[in-house]
Amino acid sequence: MNNVPENPGLRRNPGSAIDRLVALFCRLPGVGKKSAGRLVYHILDGDPGYARLLAEELELLHRAIRRCSVCGSFTETDPCSICGDPARDHGLICVVERPQDVRIIEESREFRGIFHVLGGLIAPLDGIGPDKLRIGELLSRVRRDGAQELILAFNPTLEGDTTALYLQKLLQDLNVEISRLASGLPVGGDLEYTDKLTLSRSFRGRIKL
Amino acid sequence: MNNVPENPGLRRNPGSAIDRLVALFCRLPGVGKKSAGRLVYHILDGDPGYARLLAEELELLHRAIRRCSVCGSFTETDPCSICGDPARDHGLICVVERPQDVRIIEESREFRGIFHVLGGLIAPLDGIGPDKLRIGELLSRVRRDGAQELILAFNPTLEGDTTALYLQKLLQDLNVEISRLASGLPVGGDLEYTDKLTLSRSFRGRIKL
């Protein structure tokens, strides 16, 4: 099917409609050439209405979604539904790396405060300094709105640790409590299959009973 | 972000643009809720041009692709580029379950004959009898075009075995050689991690040196 020498119309286009869609799907994270092929044939085998709906939603996506001017997360309304919700605790701000972290935390239904999206983590090796992140906006929010507590919900990585340390120092003179998500054994995990760093953290963060 | 009570415009729609796209991606094979979320945020973080291109190709897909009237595979031209290629061996037909099998075999560049897509395999438990498959078309092709050899390239499963057996019996009076793809240890595989059935097949199909 890749071998279409006799059709001049196809020769102008790089590959068939199937090939082009496979190539586009390949650019998504975690989608290799084989899975991309499986996706395209699944769509082809299925209801054309599904493909049309998917096309419509993709076409709409960037137009429908903007950044919330308060927290920096993705939203359709500004401010977003969380920042604009008077029932939430506006004195408690959960600071996250990316907008998708807001979604993940919201799905756990564990948190009733509001959010602040930094838009990344400090990573000197990748050339990402504090000036590239929404840290100034965080400072203004803490000063202006008088937040009582910040929960830093970064991944437990080198970049997460660096960013947490930086924020802790930056905010130490302000009257705000700062905490970080506990790091340790995952629920249902197994000591035997836990890496040394995680184990060490779970010792340091041990909880008195 | 799921909690939008104050916006009547959104209340009419089930969920936000992000939620709707996540729900659509979830309907693809092998894409769970988490991966769907990752895909949507990746697209949202990226170039809007990519989302637009993906939307266009999805919109085009079912209109661009039809079934080849000869082999039954997906194609943009009829007959498809393989059936219409005089350089290929038209006496050698590779019989496959699905159109995507044509793509997989073509990518291996191992086969220079032509194809026949059955559109499924015989599966009595799922109510798929021979009458639901393109077996009549295969018979006509063999009789009319005088194919010398059929290679049955089905998966080595119960349904693949059943279909191969059925075709073998059906075609035994015609002057056509029938073979099936070898089944056995995958290249780079390990005896220790090979299941019993595969091992048994690799014994039965052993090759004299």
Poorly predicted regions of chain A: 1-13
Mean pLDDT of chain A: 88
Number of strands of chain A: 6
Most extensive contact: A-B, 63 and 63 residues
Rg of Cα set of chain A: 23 Å
- Order of SSEs of chain A, N→C? HHHHEEEHEHEHEH
| Class from helix and strand fractions of chain A | alpha/beta
**Given the structure, what is the number of helices of chain A?**
8
Name the strands of the widest sheet of chain A in spatial order.
4-3-5-6
Class of the largest domain in chain A in CATH? Alpha Beta
Approximate helicity band of chain A: 40-55%
- Which architecture name of the largest domain in chain A does CATH use? 3-Layer(aba) Sandwich
Oligomer: homodimer
Q: What general outline of chain A do the C-alpha atoms trace?
A: globular
Question: Largest sheet of chain A at a glance?
Answer: 4 strands, parallel
> What is the fold-level CATH name, i.e. the topology of the largest domain in chain A?
Dna Topoisomerase Vi A Subunit, Chain: A, domain 2
In short:
With 209 residues, chain A is an alpha/beta fold. The first copy, chain A, is 42% helix and 12% strand. Chain A has eight helices and six strands; from the N terminus they run ααααβββαβαβαβα.
How would you explain this protein's 3D organization?
The structure is a homodimer of 209-residue chains. Chain A is an alpha/beta fold and 209 residues long. Chain A has helices at 8-12, 17-26, 33-45, 48-64, 99-108, 135-145, 158-170, 196-204, and strands spanning 66-67, 74-75, 89-96, 113-117, 149-152, 177-180. Chain A is built from eight helices and six strands. In chain A, helix 2 packs across helix 3. The first copy, chain A, is globular. The longest helix of chain A is centred in the first third of the chain and has 17 residues, at 48-64. In chain A, the strands form two sheets. The first copy, chain A, has a four-stranded parallel β-sheet. A two-stranded antiparallel ribbon of chain A has the order 1-2. The interface between A and B is large, with 63 and 63 residues.
